[in-house]
Amino acid sequence: MQFCNFEFMKNFLFLAVTFLLLSACSSKKSLVSKSFDKQLSSSFYKNQFTGVLVIDAETKDTIYTNNSDKYFIPASNTKIFTLFAALKTLPAQIPAIKYIKTNDILYFEGTADPSFLHPYLKDSTALNFLQNQSNLVFVANNFQDEKYGPGWAWDDYQWYYSAEKSALPIHGNVVMTYKNPKLIVSPPYFKDSVLEMTHTNNRNETSNRFYYPPTKKDTLETPFITSDQTTRSILENLLSKKVGIASTMPSGEKGTLYGSNADSLYVRMMHESDNFIAEQLLLVASGVLTDTLNGKLTRDYILENELKDLKQEPRWVDGSGLSRYNLFTPQNMVSVLDQLYSLVSQERLFSIFPAGGLSGTLKNRFAGDEKPYVFAKSGSLSNNYCLSGYLIANSGKVLIFSFMNNHFKQSTSEERNRLEQMLQTLRDTY
Question: Origin, by domain of life (predicted)?
């Protein structure tokens, strides 16, 4: 009889604790829902389109949803998909170049590695390797993509965030110009192509003629027009030796030279929202998958294999999010963020994402009281602002969220302020 009473009390206590936990969880969800519903029904959101999804990273329970199955222009939230693609396909060290040596001639081709003498990453692995070779021939037939992504604005050609894609990018495919105290130009090949004068544009639309205002004090980063001949000329200038060009690689097994640490590229892409690195990573991945440099090959592979179970099929047209043709749902974003959370350790993952109040594009936003509580990727185009990532609640629970806002005419600053209020509600309530 005592045993039966003991078992009864044990089961009773278990059910009571479970009930209390479920009630507490339900109460927290209710508080979040009431707060979010009130915010999103205000006049501020009346003439814009907003989608939200928040889930518990451990239990996968939905905490809040609103229009989460609807399509939005994601802007740089697209880089979350690019990060996932890179982590699924690329090794820890990025392939720098591929090569075949025959009859004392080194034939080499680009892998689309964006870190080659990149102005901030400064990887010189490939340069050092090529300097130690006597006879060089550059082969460029593996690039089977367009220089720009579909839907990119044509008049962005002169701005650093719209650099051209290429097989063997050098210096991030931009010209860096600054005074120290004389005019400094990098890559030095373009030194005679920069005119120190005031002009309406930073560069001619159809030629590599650049302009630097005499009164300018800071560094100007301007994309240059890429071509096989330009790549060869820059290499010859850097190496102080002749470089030939061939249409095809000789037969044989290619060697691969590995360069920069992949995470250094991922951090730069996510923290600084670097469009060029995002685009090139899709090309690097396609070269690993197929030996051909084409971003669509990577996107198709990821959607058809790694992300075939997404509830809504996204329209994914570039790596950076520059294109307004991209269409993703909050459910798409949260699904990929959830997979990333399982794929990568939390410490590593949160170091790749910008931390609120601490790093990257979130350095001046979403700050915690004592330490960061938001680790997320922002995305902004005119009239659009999205934020998707991870939130650490006061309870210690990790939440995965996606807030997507399109077609607003208010200031982006006010949009962020209201979003921050909702994130704080999540942090303090859950």
Answer: Bacteria
CA distance 413 to 265: 28
65-78 pLDDT, tens digit each: 999 999 999 999 99
Q: C-alpha 7: how far from its chain's center? A: 55
Handedness of CA 298, 300, 302, 304 (dihedral sign): negative
Angstrom distances, CA of residue 399 to CA of 221, 232, 334, 393, 430 = 38, 49, 10, 7, 9
- Residue 169: cis peptide before it, omega within 30 degrees of 0: no
For strand 105-110 and strand 135-139, is the pairing parallel, antiparallel, or unpaired?
Answer: parallel
Looking at residue 420, its pLDDT comes to 96
Using one digit for the tens of pLDDT, what is the confidence trace for 323-339? 999 999 999 999 999 99
Q: Where in the chain is the domain with CATH 3.40.710.10?
A: 35-83+295-429
Distance CA 104, CA 119 (A): 32
**Residue 2 confidence (pLDDT):** 52
Q: How does pLDDT run across 398-409, given as a tens digit for each residue?
A: 999 999 999 999
Residue 9, by phi and psi: left (phi above 0), alpha (psi -120 to 50) or beta? Answer: alpha
Answer positive or negative: Cα dihedral of 366, 367, 373, 377: positive
Q: What is the pLDDT of residues 57-111, one digit of tens each?
A: 999 999 999 999 999 999 999 999 999 999 999 999 999 999 999 989 999 999 9
pLDDT of residue 15: 53
Q: State residue 378 phi and psi, 5-degree precision.
A: -90, 160
Output the pTM of the full model. Answer: 0.93
Range 35-83+295-429: architecture per CATH: 3-Layer(aba) Sandwich (3.40)
Q: Which of 275, 405, 420, 318 is nearest to 362 (CA)?
A: 420
Model pLDDT, residue 3? 46
Tokens of 368: 């915690």
pLDDT value at 8 more than 80 = no
- First-to-final CA distance of the chain: 43
Between the alpha carbon of residue 105 and those of residues 138, 233, 244, 246, 258, the distances in Å are: 11, 18, 10, 12, 20
Which of 1, 71, 59, 69 has its CA nearest to residue 25?
A: 59
Amino acid type, 14: F
Helix axes 330-343, 78-89, angle to 10 degrees: 30
CA dist 225 and 222 (Å) reads: 10
